[in-house]
Amino acid sequence: MPDEPTTIEVETRRHQMFPILSAADIARIRRFGSVRQHARGDCLFRAGDPGPGMFVVLEGTVSITQRDGLGHVVPIDHQGPGQFLAEIAQLSGRPALVDGHAETDVQTLLVPPDQLRALIIAEADLGERLVRAMILRRVALIESGASGPVLIGPPQSAGVLRVQNFLGRNGYPCHVVDATRDADAAALLEQYGESELLVVCPDGSVMPNPTEHALARCLGMVDTIAHDDLFDVVVVGAGPAGLATAVYAASEGLRVIVIDCRSFGGQAGASARIENYLGFPTGISGGALAGRAYVQAQKFGVEMLIPAQVESLDCSAAETHGRVTVLLTDGRRITARTLVIASGARYRRPEVPRLAEFEGRGIWFWASALEARLCEKQEVALVGGGNSAGQAAVFLSQHAAKVNVLVRGPSLAATMSRYLIDRIEASDNIELHPHTELLALHGDPAGGGLNGATWRNRLSGEHEDCPARNIFLFIGAVPETDWLAGCGVVLDKHGFVVTGQAARGGFPARTAAALESSVPGVFAIGDVRSGSVKRVGGAIGEGAAVVALIHQHLAAQPQADATAPATI
Fold it and tell me: What is the DSSP letter of 284?
């Protein structure tokens, strides 16, 4: 008997993005949601408004469209019975990025954010399909460049690049309108005088040259809730160390809140490719690794305040009441039974005249795809000899005509991983300049920006001019610990947090835990900790290890009164 023909269906990205749920799948979802009726023309969710959760379409059809603040509407898709409406923002009830309207009378099953997280954890295989689809939908929105806020200005202006980078690092889509080519955009920009950038939010509000925090509030990226209740853990810093702490702590039932002043991922999030992280033989971008961890943390119910700036830490009740309080610059106070310092470190700014004038106008402290496009077929310079510098040099060499790498030492051997050194040595368009320091910058920040630089060989004293319009700085590390002043947390001579026995030789009545600071219940991990290895793998390992120490600390403390106010 001849073999029956077999059809092999290759699962495409679209199939993963818009899967059809079976009757059995919907039956499993029912206990987490409630049935809703929608008349033809009803709006189920609107871009810019907090999303109500995930809708599963039971009957009828829903149209999905993108809408920007300028009134442009672009159809995305039509969803019918067996399909679900949600993207990754619905895990935490963040504002929707698209509109959904009932094309016919529609019946849906609405699963609110808290129940959606419960569903994903309880129904692991189904949850995996849902999360994959939600992530791919967010990626598609980012790649389309048609949703989110509208950025009006010259595409290569410092303002546009600053906001694009901020939104990109936070996984948020945006749409850029070139004011040099679009007459309507140019007219709107002119109305606001000397603004180099206008941002139009999905609700239609217009913001000239907004700060990152103002833009985040306009987009609903960060909430304004008081957060007066008591947390088990507050994590300051959303780099690999902080996100690892959040994932492990929340997955073990602790109530966790994460605060970061700019974006998730930290310095590692800006890495073009990390190739020595266990389990990724072909490498992974820092943004992708951080993005997965960010979603994973939300899946376990971690509350995120990004961007939110920490002003100070109050440790006055750490020993007496087992509580610490973080004060934010917006006046809110976050109180927890333990605190994890994961605020990381920033790259140093060399003492080069006019450096501050050119930041964002040719001087960069990261190398993303946005900056790489600016360097296409140009000669650039990069200062630094660590792994971040090596990753950036290799990445930029794929776009720039030539990459000059300036290091103060004799070689890269003492500061960079061997695989990166080999990659640099194999690149025809990367030139290493040992014993070299950046001396001067040339150009007009208000005009064309940076148009050249001068550096000096520290041994020979010889000067060299370079027409680099873009220079990338990856030198040293300055710990982000200013917010700890006055709290009694011991720092080393370089400003990094001292932990373990060295913190103060042990606390009264007990020995200091390995990752614990001089203040009981306050821990430090990752780049901000004195003696850390300054590697992504090490940071993630410390994030996992500190959770065991947190459990030990909490077990030794009297149980907090759930009805007591969290403020001190």
Answer: B
Q: For Cα atoms 187, 190, 191, give the angle at the middle one, nearest 5 degrees.
A: 95
Reference 568, options 316, 341, 233; nearest CA is: 316
Residues 71, 202 contacting (CB under 8 angstroms): no
Residue whose C-alpha is closest to residue 235's, from 257, 267, 263, 262: 257
- Full DSSP string of 75-120: EEEEE-TT-EE--GGGGTTPBBSSEEEESS-EEEEEE-HHHHHHHH
Q: Give the range of the structural domain holding residue 483, as residue numbers without chain letter.
A: 231-346+479-487+517-555
Closest CA to 542 of 555, 524, 519: 524
What CATH number should be reported for the domain holding residue 447? Answer: 3.50.50.60
- 507 falls within a domain: no
What's the predicted TM-score (pTM) here?
Answer: 0.91
Distance CA(237)–CA(259), nearest Å, equals 6
Locate tokens 């419960």: which residue? 118
What digits encode the pLDDT tens for the residues 213-264?
999 999 999 988 999 999 999 999 999 999 999 999 999 999 999 999 999 9
One domain for residues 79 and 138? yes
- Dihedral angle computed from the Cα positions of residues 90, 94, 98 and 101, in that order, rounded to the nearest 10 degrees: 70
Looking at the structure of the chain, the number of domains it has is 4
Give the residue from 197, 219, 241 where a domain finishes.
Answer: 219
